[in-house]
Amino acid sequence: MANSKLFLVILITFGVIVPSLVAHIAEFDGYWRRRAEESLENTHNLYHPEPEKVTAEVNKAVVQSLKEVSSNTTARRLLGSIRKNRPCEATNPIDKCWRCDPKWADNRKRLADCGIGFGKNATGGKHGEFYVVTDDSDDTMNPKIGTLRHAVTQKRPLWIIFQRDMVIRLVQELIMESDKTIDARGTRVYITGGAGLTLQFIRNVIIHGLRINNIGVGSGGLIRDSEEHFGLRTQSDGDGISIFGSQNIWIDHVSMKKCFDGIIDVIEGSTAITISNGHFTDHNEVMLFGAHDNSTIDEKMQITLAFNHFGKRLVQRMPRCRFGYVHIVNNDYTHWNMYAIGGSSHPTIISQGNRFVASNDAFTKEVTKREAVESVWKNWDWVSEDNLFVNGAYFVPSGDQDWSRKHPQISDGVKSGKGIEASILTKYSGALRCIVGKPC
Ligand SMILES: *[C@@H]1O[C@H](CO)[C@@H](O)[C@H](O)[C@H]1NC(C)=O
Ligand SMILES: *[C@@H]1O[C@H](CO)[C@@H](O)[C@H](O)[C@H]1NC(C)=O
Ligand SMILES: *[C@@H]1O[C@H](CO)[C@@H](O)[C@H](O)[C@H]1NC(C)=O
Questions:
Q1: What 3-state class would DSSP assign to 388?
Q2: Neighbours of 183 (CB within 10 A)
Q3: Is pLDDT of 231 > 90?
Q4: What is the residue with the minimal CA distance to atom 10 of ligand 3?
Q5: Of 64, 251, 253, 415, which has the fewest CB atoms closer than 10 Å, so is most exposed?
Q6: Where is the Pectate lyase domain (predicted)?
Q7: How is residue 366 annotated by DSSP?
């Protein structure tokens, strides 16, 4: 009797400890186990079997908006001397969808219809009420009503906005529930000097307009992760945004720098994700997509990286990928100190219409880096189309370079926006300064 009980204890202890080491959950209780199982199901269900359809749709939208930009630019030139107020300029299809509407603040949920790429279906808190954050304080176990932590741990869908400009120092990682939009438009909201955001085993989140910097390691301890649950956590990594086993995520117009670990990490079965219009600076390991060469669930990872500006004092991992399918389109890479795009475990990388500006250092001209021997990586599909290479930058392609010709029925001959246009498409990257009542 006593023996079998002991055996049971040992069994449970093992079951508890193994996943927890990876997930930073010190007590992998029934609650987290259920969430992990649901997450795995979502990963499989949300995998898009024809990713070229998604890349072609993005490219089509970009080409269309570029046409409008150039006709508006001509119109503006003609009007320039007559009108003082320049018409609003939105240079990419996401921004075009909402930014020039002077009533954007009365119509905030419109943003949820503006996504593109693999994270397009993220609706965040569109079907919920507004929640106004009024209090910049943080309490990890008993968050006060009106704080960001109180908002993101609610079970129901919420569209979270801010009453005023705020500087929020998170005492521990901010563990979010599903179906949330964090919308900082019209206010300047800094998440700084503390821990970062954690999206773990959740679905359907939009994060827009946050300024996230100087993020450190959270010590761990008891943290509330839902209005109905809290638990013991180990140290957090010190990522700005950590996406772990989560799906339907859209991160738009964030300004991020100086995080202890990654700026944005996407790992362990996360998929259906778009990261767009971001401005990233001052960081070493920028984005990790897939954490381990043995996490084969990341075969299902599909990510769109569009209209981001990878800027000053960045070093590497923009992104570093394992497995998965990553569409890297119309980004502006102006700084890297080791490499820009790298990976292991045969990820598929479709790099289209980016601008890559190399530094003057002769040893960092290469955009790409692979952790494998050539006889292995030569079969990985790393496609480079319509990119602009400046100052000796070069991309080493591999695998099937007939990629776009192989999918003519899907891609319909659609070409991406060109690398030379990347600086126009990313012109307004980072958190915007929107004023209520005016086009943003
Ligand atoms: C071009 O101008 C029109 C009229 O002002 C506006 O509705 C449209 O959003 C603009 N397009 C872009 C891409 O800026
Ligand atoms: C979004 O959802 C629709 C309807 O379920 C689906 O057909 C489409 O493939 C999804 N889009 C992406 C990019 O996953
Ligand atoms: C996967 O690899 C990581 C790092 O190499 C290691 O810590 C972990 O134990 C491995 N997991 C499994 C299930 O093999």
A1: strand
A2: 26
A3: yes
A4: 294
A5: 64
A6: 165-362
A7: B
Q: What is the pLDDT of residue 76?
A: 65
Distance CA 98, CA 440 (A): 9
Model pTM score:
0.92
Q: What is the pLDDT of residues 292-340, one digit of tens each?
A: 999 999 999 999 999 999 999 999 999 999 999 999 999 999 999 999 9
Q: Say which residues have a Cβ less than 8 Å from residue 53's Cβ, sequence separation at least 6.
A: 410
Tell me which amino acid residue 225 is. D
Please report, as a single letter, which amino acid is at residue 82: I
The rounded distance, in Å, linking the Cα atoms of 173 and 155 is 18
Location of structure tokens 């994270």: 119
* CB atoms near residue 98 (< 10 Å): 20
CA-based nearest residue to 355, from 304, 418, 277: 418
Q: Are 386 and 422 in contact (CB under 8 A)?
A: no
Q: Which residues pair with 283 in a beta bridge?
A: 314
Q: Is 96 in the pocket of ligand 1 (CB under 6 A)?
A: yes
Judged by its nearest atom, the ligand closest to the C-alpha of residue 344 is 3
Answer yes or no: 110 catalytic.
no
Task: Please give the radius of gyration of the chain, using alpha carbons only, rounded to the nearest integer.
Answer: 22
Tell the residue nearest (CA) to atom 13 of ligand 3: 294
- Judged against a pLDDT cut of 60, whether residue 23 lies above it is answered with yes
How much is the pLDDT for 412? 65
Q: How far is the CA of 294 from the centre of ligand 3 (A)?
A: 6
Q: CA of 96: how far to CAs of 89, 181, 253, 276, 417, in Å?
A: 8, 20, 14, 14, 15
Class of domain 40-60+100-425: mainly beta
From the CB of 292, is ligand 3 less than 6 Å away?
yes
Ligand 2 neighbourhood includes 48 CB (under 6 angstroms): yes
Of 333, 342, 419, nearest to 382 by C-alpha is 342
For tokens 């040992």, name the residue.
10
Determine the angle formed by the axes of helices 2-23 and 30-46, rounding to 10 degrees: 50
Q: Whose alpha carbon is nearest atom 5 of ligand 3?
A: 292
φ/ψ of residue 42, rounded to 5: -60, -40
Q: Report how far apart the first and last C-alpha atoms of the chain are (Å, whole number).
A: 70
> What percent of the chain clears pLDDT 70, i.e. is strictly above it?
90
Residue ID of nearest Cα to ligand 2 atom 13 = 118
CB of residue 73 inside a 6 A radius of ligand 1: no
